[in-house]
Amino acid sequence: MQQNLYRIQIVGATGYGGLGLIEQLMRHPNIELTSLLAKTDTGMQLSKIFPHLTGFCDHIVGEVQDERIGENADLVVFATPDRVAMNYAASLIQRGIKVIDYSGDFRFSDLAVYDRYAARKPGMGGKPHQAPELLKQSVYGVPELFREKIQNASLVGNPGCFAIAIELALAPALRSGILNPQSIIVDGKTGTSGGGKKPSTVNHFSEQSENVLPYRVANHQHGTEAEGVLTHVSGSPVGITFVPHQIPTSRGIECAIFGQLNREISLEKIQELYHESYSHEPFVRVLPPGVAPGPKAVRGSNLCDISLFVDQANNRLVIISSIDNLLKGQAGTALQNINLMLGLEETTGINRVPLYP
């Protein structure tokens, strides 16, 4: 029996985020990749740009043109920077085409929260949203928190990579009320691919090698994003001091998260709480006590590893969360969302087995 094929178009296909989704779609039984659009490397076979795709995806990369957006597609993925998808989403939805956006354009239902996010994003401060009327109908794309809404959505804002690592780590503790929501500190570390494919001085080998580079200290847009989502999840205002760092590795995110416990509670009870929250989630692993292997243990997979510790002397909860920033932090979660929006099994085509060493 022939299975139904859904047509997917990727805009921004030659960046790391687009590439990560393409790699997964090559093994998806229900999806046909109908077109790849980009601003760079147009007119070339994708496999000439990324030779590891030779024989798997030899599509020609088309130039981004207004009339081509949504062409021959049931769903369009914008693997693009901020302020691109907002110019096309309304017309696509009117045509019955579903939309997933990798940027922050549709991560927020509240325009004021979007404005706070944009103010923290370099070059975006003061620029108005071009489709504010769509914010109320957009759904935030973390399936572990908003699965039912995603299933019925036409427009999904894929989460930021640091944000999803923070949100999955903190949601059970905040939802249960064991953590002071205003006490949270996050020390985040990411590989260079988190900055995208475009070269920059900070991504130069001689700057990265043997170095740890803090950036946007207590002023990163993913901190604002996580605060808003976790406030919604917990029902109480959440305050996060977030300090991200770039480290000399190509991919992976690790967040060390600290928060004041509201009462004395054993590590065993917290482990039980997290196991109950995530026992049916295919892409979240709550690791045994004392085990925190870091992002290498999830490399190449869509997994989020969560490790729990209690600093009893200071009554603090310490959470370590690890993801592959290009998969669970971007393209893997996007494919979860695609599957849900199209009524498919959520895990279809998504890799759960890490690449090690």
Automatic annotation (TrEMBL):
GO molecular function terms attached to this record: N-acetyl-gamma-glutamyl-phosphate reductase activity; NAD binding; NADP+ binding
Gene: argC
Pathway the protein takes part in: Amino-acid biosynthesis; L-arginine biosynthesis; N(2)-acetyl-L-ornithine from L-glutamate: step 3/4
Annotated catalytic residues: C161
Superkingdom to which the source organism belongs: Bacteria
EC numbers: 1.2.1.38
Family indicated by similarity: Belongs to the NAGSA dehydrogenase family. Type 1 subfamily.
Lineage of source species: Bacteria, Bacillati, Chloroflexota, Ktedonobacteria, Ktedonobacterales
Gene Ontology biological process terms, A to Z: L-arginine biosynthetic process
Enzyme's top EC category: oxidoreductase
Keywords: Amino-acid biosynthesis, Arginine biosynthesis, Cytoplasm, NADP, Oxidoreductase
Keyword check for NADP: yes
Localization, UniProt: Cytoplasm
InterPro entries registered for this protein in UniProt: AGPR (IPR050085), AGPR_dimerisation_dom (IPR058924), AGPR_type-1 (IPR000706), NAD(P)-bd_dom_sf (IPR036291), Semialdehyde_DH_NAD-bd (IPR000534)
Domain Semialdehyde dehydrogenase NAD-binding: 7-153
One Pfam family linked to the record: Semialdhyde_dh
GO cellular component, one term: cytoplasm
SUPFAM superfamilies, per the entry: Glyceraldehyde-3-phosphate dehydrogenase-like, C-terminal domain, NAD(P)-binding Rossmann-fold domains
The reaction(s) this protein catalyses: N-acetyl-L-glutamate 5-semialdehyde + phosphate + NADP(+) = N-acetyl-L-glutamyl 5-phosphate + NADPH + H(+)
Name of the protein in its database record: N-acetyl-gamma-glutamyl-phosphate reductase
Role noted for this protein: Catalyzes the NADPH-dependent reduction of N-acetyl-5-glutamyl phosphate to yield N-acetyl-L-glutamate 5-semialdehyde.
